[in-house]
Amino acid sequence: MTSMIRSSRIPALLAVVFTAGLLGACSATTPEPRPQPSAAASTQLVDPSVNYHDPHAVCAAFAVAAHRVDTAVDRDRADVYRRAAAYLDAQLAAAAVDQDSARQTPQWQELVQHRAYTEVQVGPYAGDALPPDTAEQRHVGALVTVRPIGRDGWRGTLERHTVVCGLRPSTVGWRISEYEIG
Fold this sequence. Notes:
The chain is built from six helices and four strands. By secondary structure, it is of the alpha+beta class. This is Lipoprotein.
């Protein structure tokens, strides 16, 4: 397994990580500018159904949010990033939604054409050994299975991804400070 993604490389890698796999390479379409969330605003995001005191629950919820798409409500991938930010620490959440995330890819256009959504299932991690936990950081993994489904009967290719989360404690429980999607 490659080393964990460090926050200094996060802004450049986030667009690549999310668009790889399900959405592929970016097209040349220029995105509309989007307002950037402030670090203070991103710490306010909370999913009340998640136990933030359980690092496994936080990583699993993030893995699902990062892969769940519904073109009936999502304008573009930036909407997906905003939902996934509920599980990230303030620094990573502030970097999560940038202008590159709103690019329309051919894969996104295919999802839109079929009015598609994704069915996402999360299971136990079965990848390479995780980095050791420390007093200040836990490492948790999950296996995600994603199937795009069109409201017109179309079925996309079933995909499997591993998600490895590095989590740090915060005043509201565990938050993801780094992650890797493979």
